[in-house]
Design a protein that fits this description.
3-stranded mixed sheet, 10 helices, alpha+beta
Length: about 325
């Protein structure tokens, strides 16, 4: 099936990744900013009042901030495209499922940010796990619904399942272990092509500058499951901060399903099916910044943000039946 030149859905057009990390960082920044305004009251009554106020602030911030973002999103994006009855479409075979892993990351990372915000507010453990944990999936489901009413796109069951899985990873680990032993992380490396035709096609799909490509280019994005080895080994001398990460990405993606594009009337405008579309798997060390203890609030905030990203390190790549060593990979 030929790929036509139509805009990608918002979560793919501005990248699955960018929106999630933005919400994640803004949530954590709100936590950090509020914490600077609160004195260290020791009286139990004052502490209870403080927790109630924080919960109100967090609830108001979630409702107002996300509600405003959705109104702005609809006004700036969806209303400019034709609407239709609610419908779904199957995009499971597109982009070697890198976009689906991106949705999983999004559901996970937004849930992490929300749960940490409720933790700071003093909410009961199980409540903050469920409310914070389901937030990521809820945020993305709203966007899927908007896609479902857009004529050019549609509700994607694959995206929805990935969003739920990401939130489920956070909830399951918190309930079972009271910690995140497997963290989902992101990394990006820039790509360019010597072939002018391929470079032009890449620019059309992902943008011509690195800030755009960082957010959009599936070929340069890698998603990681960073495993806290020490948490699985009792009485081990393995450093608590040292993780082992398994990564997934792909290259050669110059179209959703194939490296070919046509006009609405069937004219071929790009055909490079000679370029292989390959999956890539990685194995690398990583850092769990949350395991580095500090009493400084600024550093704790920084470490929480850094935990959304894979730390640059040597990596083994497994793809197309070959093994390759990267001295430094990000």
């Amino acid at each position: 099936m030929a790929c036509k030149f139509v805009p990608l859905p918002l979560q793919k057009h501005i990248s699955i990744f960018s929106k999630y990390v933005l919400i994640y960082i803004l949530s954590l920044h709100s936590t950090f900013s509020f914490s600077q305004l609160i004195s260290t009251d020791t009286a139990s009554l004052a502490k209870e009042r403080l927790q109630k106020n924080r919960i109100k602030w967090v609830a108001a911030g979630n409702i107002g901030g996300y509600g405003g973002a959705m109104i702005g999103l609809y006004s700036a994006w969806y209303r400019n495209y034709p609407q239709s009855k609610f419908h779904s479409f199957n995009d499971w075979r597109e982009w070697k499922q890198v976009d689906k892993v991106g949705h999983l990351y999004g559901g996970y990372i937004e849930s992490v940010g929300s749960m940490e915000l409720w933790r700071w507010a003093g909410m009961d453990r199980k409540k903050r796990i469920w409310i914070g944990g389901l937030s990521g999936a809820a945020y993305q489901t709203i966007i899927e619904v908007l896609d479902g009413f857009s004529k050019d796109w549609g509700w994607s069951w694959g995206d929805f399942a990935a969003n739920i899985t990401g939130s489920g990873l956070l909830i399951g680990q918190e309930l079972a272990w009271n910690e995140q032993r497997i963290r989902i992380k992101f990394s990006y490396h820039p790509l360019s092509y010597n072939d002018p035709q391929v470079q032009e096609r890449s620019n059309q799909l992902f943008g011509s500058n690195q800030s755009n490509r960082f957010l959009k280019d599936y070929n340069g994005q890698t998603y990681w499951a960073s495993i806290a080895v020490a948490s699985f080994l009792q009485n081990s001398k393995w450093p608590k901060w040292l993780n082992i990460a398994v990564g997934y990405g792909a290259e050669g993606l110059l179209g959703g399903r194939e490296n070919r594009a046509s006009t609405p009337v069937g004219g071929v405008v790009f055909d490079r099916r000679d370029i292989p579309r390959v999956r890539q798997w990685y194995l690398a060390p990583d850092i769990d910044w949350k395991k580095i203890h500090t009493n400084r609030a600024g550093l704790r905030f920084l470490f929480t943000v850094l935990n959304a990203f894979k730390f640059p390190a040597p990596a083994l790549e497994f793809s197309a039946g070959k093994v390759r060593l990267h001295p430094i990979y990000f």
